[in-house]
Design a protein that fits this description.
277 residues, alpha/beta, Glycerol-3-phosphate (1)-acyltransferase, eight-stranded mixed sheet, 8 strands, 14% strand, globular
């Protein structure tokens, strides 16, 4: 076993035992954090893409790639704190899981797979076009995902419910971002009920996931390649699992309340608008 393999295994064992993670103190910031981060991440993507094309990019490789993304973020000054993984573990022991979280940046889809895969494989909802990208396409085709076209909202809803239910039946968690678009604030009224509907249909538990990831701002030309802000901490919190009963309103309210409380603790702006269903 290489030193890197031993380091990764120790990291996973610590996450399972502690249910939390915090970037070790003493790290240095890169002189040019934005180009440095994207260069480091591109190396991770290229390496993962080669493995995917060879047919060897499995769940363990997905988790390792996510871990490398975490190390890339920390190498340019990112400070990451994760809490509540014991809640995810408890939910997985009881059955299928739908994670429901707010959406700020691409950091979430880079780091969450590694934290989920400590306890369960996970599928994300992605744009159909990503499957055809030269670098990302092979990776996305190799991992659990739900591809939607975004041209027909009704068809997208059917696809998420049908494909999501199938992934949940296979024992793979599904992560849903009800806001759809990335926002540096939280709007409770625009947090739709897609995740709760999927959980109700599949008989799954809901696990709220609060996210503060404005460390990486959306790019002007390409959203995933934005400006890095090392002074902004990255925070991820997994909330207590909840069953969906009746019309699902209680589960939806509990999910929104958990995320809203975390946003307040983290001084993330909260905006109140009309409710979406």
């Amino acid at each position: 076993m290489s030193n890197h393999d031993a380091e990764f295994r120790s990291y996973v064992e610590a996450l399972r035992a502690d249910g939390r993670y915090a970037t070790p103190a003493g790290g240095r910031r890169a002189w040019w954090p934005t180009p440095s981060l994207h260069a480091r991440l591109m190396w991770v993507y290229l390496r993962a893409g080669r493995a995917a094309r060879r047919g060897v990019f499995d769940a363990a490789a997905y988790a390792l790639a996510s871990y490398r993304c975490l190390r890339a973020v920390e190498a340019v000054g990112g400070r990451v704190t994760v809490t509540g993984l014991e809640n995810l573990a408890a939910a997985v022991r009881r059955g299928p899981v739908v994670g429901i979280g707010n959406h700020m940046s691409a950091i979430e889809t880079l780091l969450l797979p590694g934290f989920f895969n400590v306890h369960t494989p996970v599928a994300f909802v992605i744009k159909q076009s990503l499957l055809d990208f030269p670098v990302f396409g092979p990776i996305m085709r190799a991992v659990p995902c739900i591809a939607v076209g975004r041209a027909d909202p009704r068809q997208d809803l059917r696809d998420v419910l049908e494909q999501g239910t199938e992934w949940l039946r296979r024992g793979t968690a599904v992560m849903v971002f009800p806001q759809a678009t990335r926002q540096p604030w939280f709007e409770p009224g625009r947090f739709n009920t897609l995740g709760v509907k999927l959980a109700a249909r599949a008989g799954a538990l809901v696990v709220p996931v609060a996210l503060c990831t404005d460390f990486l701002a959306p790019g002007r030309m390409f959203k995933d390649f934005g400006t890095v802000h090392p002074g902004r901490p990255i925070r991820i919190a997994f909330g207590p699992p909840r069953t969906v009963e009746g019309n699902g309103r209680a589960a939806q309210a509990a999910t929104v309340a958990f995320i809203e409380a975390a946003m307040r603790d983290w001084n993330v702006p909260i905006r109140y608008e009309e409710t979406k269903t």
